[in-house]
Structure prediction request, 462 residues.
Amino acid sequence: MKNVLNQINDIPQVRGSLVIDQEGLVIASNLMSGMEEKTISAMVADIFNQVAKALAAGREEEVHGVQLMASSGNIIFLCARHGILIVITEAGANLGLVSIKMKASLERLMEML
Amino acid sequence: MSSDSVKKFSDQVLNDPSSLLFASLADFYRENGLFQEALSICQNGLESHPENTEGRLVLAQCCRALGDIQQARTELTRVLKSHPENALAKKLLAELDRAGESTLEPAREKPEELAPESLTATEPLAVSPGPAPAEQVTEPPAEPAPEARASDQQPAPPMIEPPEEFHQGAKAMMVLAAESAGRAEPGEARAEILEYQEPSPASVTAAAEPPSPPAEPAREQPAPTAEESGAYARILGEVAKTPQVHSALLADESGYPVASALAPGAAPLDEEAAGALASLVFSIASQAMQKIKLGNLERAVIDTRNEKIFLSRAGSQVLSVAADSSAKVGLVAVNLKRAVERLNALSQQ
Prediction:
């Protein structure tokens, strides 16, 4: 699992990646120093659950992924049945490339879970 | 809204102490005169989210309504310490200072007066054009509380009829909560927003009320004029013309729909629910990004099975665009960015 995350982290401007379960517990992580693993996992799980609740309420939809683009960086997360793959990037990162890599990695990760 | 729905929404919030919806529920209780219950909900919620501006503002209003002026001042001062530009906090504090609270009825507040801004969970995002908050604080005495209450008693213009005179954002969330619990009542309680019809082929609508300015006397941001509504609708209409885009909606930070546009042939949009959803999601994500120290959230893309939802900050408002799941993200993002720039320019005029 670490290897899969390492491959994601090889993409330029990626600052870290982690896999969590839907309660926000970290399954695996590879973050640059200075990044708070627990804060990120808790926040992402909260966003995921709130968005999922809101979407489910509005029109029977389920969240596959979310991209959040902020002034100092981006968070992308993809959801699967057993976990959420999260990648944190710098502000100017190539999000298309990151997304492609994440989709491929998610399949491999889900096989491991 | 049935009492069952209220109970379900209440249970949902109370069973999840970490839910950020506590402030909306508390605001709903407050607006219906249940100040003590609202106070308890706020106190519990703020234990999990002590920095939640919206919850603290509702708490301050409850304290004021219950006669605890000192506590109300403390809460408002705390909000202003962390968010010096919070217009509602300034306004409430100014009211306390100005009226000495003697002219305010503790047991009954005017719902429309404070409701829209009482859900300013995205306060840090409120890039209000400089003078706006100051104008709110130094309102001319033509709109003091007694007069506002007098206008409250006039039956003609209220946006929400009694007994459903509570906050629309809270109500929209309650509709969502009720629907999530399997109580699909999509038509219920959603007819309060007056619509401005833009006569364009793109089925553009804007939620505004050109001929009836008294409908929103206490909004801190002035209600859009007919011209502004038309401009909003045109901008959104152009976004809606992007290939594979279904709809575009502009909501204020409290979840009120400001304007919307549908692509030709698209299904009707539930503006109220979509506005509440966009505002809620953006608010939660904004707070999370700041906690993770990634700065201010500017844009979000939510990928679902059937569609992509693009959310973008436009000043203090949120622009939401729904598109097919196969939509070209870059193309939509470019048009979204262009629309945001135009909306920002419009709001600065």
